[in-house]
Amino acid sequence: MRIQPRQQILDLWRSVLTQSWNGAEWRWDGREPANSISDSEQLLCLLYPATEIESLALDRPDSMADDVSSVLSPFGGQTKIGTVVVTLLEEYILRNTQRLGPDFEPDSAGEPDGEPIFAAGSYLRSADEREPTAAQRGIEVVDSYSMSLTLCLAGLRFLRVYEGWVRAEARGSLTERIEKLAARLSTRLTAAMTGLVRSFVVTTVEPKSDAGQVMLGMLNQSDLPEKTVAEGITRSLERVRARLRNDITLGQTPDTELDDEDLLFECGWSWGLVREAAPVGFVDSDIARKPGVADPRPYLYFTVIALDGINDLISQRTRELDLLDEQQYRLAEALRIRWDLTQRYWSTVARFGSGSWPLEDIPWRTSDGEESDYFSLIVSAVLIQDLIARTASDDDLTRAVSIFDELARRGRIIRRTTRDDPAVELHAPGVRLSLRGSETVDNGPLLHWEVSDFAAVLLKRTLQAARLSGDITARDRLMDLAKSTMDHLEARMISSGKASGLWDDPAGVFGNGTPRETDPSWYMTERVIECLVTADRTFREPPLTSRAMVVRAVELLNEAEHLLNQEMLGVSIEDFSENRITLDRVEEHLEQARQLVVRRQAGTAFVLAADALRELHKLAYARMDATRST
User: Nearest CA to 91 among 161, 21, 32?
Assistant: First the structure.
């Protein structure tokens, strides 16, 4: 299907309101009981597009688009939509902040009085027959930090502009609410940033250890001696190693021997606060000093989730709106360094060597010996993220096209499933990640995390790669793959009940007697929203033009301008005939075509130049016909 981000986002908004808004109250649960992550995801379905796409903005009621106000009309008129958004953000903060007073009642107490809550709650699964304990339900994961970061930034962006409109309308009580809400969002943002700092980890391993052997096995695509591979990767990552050793000062974990260059290393984010992570001394919050329990090794999934959140934090718009205070700027700089070095590390590892890339050897095998097509997709996602931050070569993107295409086939996006197809498990129930260290909390079971967003990750990264690509053929292949992936996701849309139009119903694609889902997964729905916002950014880029088309357009322009000059030689200044009007129109079209060539829209310039030549030919032919007649 054709991807139409604006219309699809509006349709999704309509479905979100049908599911969540009864005219007076917001329903926070979905397929799973509500938790801090699902609360963030649910609100981001509304706020992320509204703060990332100018034409969908909700913060200026007087200039709100008609179709936007129509879709959100259940909130009230244009002037009431913003007030409802403020109320929803207030509820979000109340729901996800500790209540220290024994008789705390939101309606009477007015505001929360404790620390921000990032509990994963119902998203956590037990690896055995035991249920997670109450203490384990309170475990915080990187997903919650990252989603909270993105939501708090979106909320602060909205409030920054909306507050100006409210002040202009002299709405004093609402102004006071906005000021308090902005302060609470900022407090939560600081805590989320601190959590991400203390969840980052660098781990070193001996080349002869089990983990080292797995790493070298993935890197060695040319069947070289292990020592040669180890020395080669050490040279390739020399700068990354030096900066990790010298620039990472906050939230460090002990026993990282980066000075020993004979050791291999990995960097990224663990699943939560890392065991023995150092406190962040300048932040006055529990999250800055409480002990972590997460295994001190990177998890690919949580690494990408963290990178996406930090990408929102360090964006140009965040800087332009001056949303961060001095403490947050310090945390943001710490996260920016980690963001940069992590992308450089995995981009280098993914493309290591002079022959086949390790990333092309699907499936990717992690250092703990687990392998999955999903891990290959996640490493591809980090690679594309790195290529966005730097100049991507056509060769990099061309090879990425083949990787995405292969993953789409192996993930049954563009190939039918077979009976008892193991690839279905990539989507439902998803890949299971063991949260090592979670079993130490309250002597409970080992917990795991299920990731079922294979199709959404593939779509988002394919669209990002298409935006980067300077090769017409590669971009065309990427866009075809994006359309096929969108077809797959469209078939998984819930088709009945109040949640109709939301995600996720895998039985719509895979069937096999699987019960149809009628309750929304905010986890998956939010990721589809991210894809549509990415599609909007991709479509706003200028179209690609081949060198041959530019040359041909310039050739037509030169011929048309020469013929126009010839025609103008025989036209008087005082000539106001139909012929003169035609020549003026041709001149205007040629000027537009010249500007379009400069803006790299050679195809449109070609058509305008061809139309000009057609008009000039008609004039010349009419003149010859008139001459023959006399």
Answer: 21
